[in-house]
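Methods, example record. To illustrate the input and output format used throughout this study, we show the complete record for DUF1439 domain-containing protein. The sequence lines were provided to the predictor; the line carrying structure tokens was produced by it.
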Amino acid sequence: MHLKSLLLAGSVVFFSGCASYGVTENEMQSYLNKETQFNHSVGIQGLAYATGKFDNIKVGIGRVAKNKVNVAATATADLELMGQPTQNISIKANFSAIPYYNQDQGAIYLKNLNIESLDITPQRLNNVLTKPVITPIVSFLSQVLSTKPVYKLNDNEIEQALLKKTKPELIIENHKLILDW
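The corresponding predicted structure is encoded as:
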């Protein structure tokens, strides 16, 4: 055990020039699009019911606020309202949140998630009947974004594995999330 600690310490000193790791918007976007694909159904069939799928996730780091990450997601859903023909709707939601690093999991999460904007197409469906269906879909996405990592360090890459063993500070710089040791 003592030898392992010495090797880790020696590796950290050796790689001290590489003591930070940056996650770009594209890397986070790719991670989210790969890891958070989901389909979700809400409502009561025959009354108000929707089956939706989120797909097009876009990420902005420090673009709207210096300490926040923005996540825009588009959902498409098939909406059934009290015996009317099924209608296809599109929901564009834009969230902002504060990123934080969980050392135990070697992952970046979002906290204090806030809905910045919500756009439903077609506009004529943006009424009281759709709110019982739309609100749970948006809440579900919000829950996913705040409980699943938006990026996880890779144990198979030396630099990331070493950072995971330390207690890096998470900062936003030049539209990147920087884990700095």
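Annotations derived from this record:
The helical segments are 2-14, 25-35, 131-147, 158-165.
The two ends are 23 Å apart (CA to CA).
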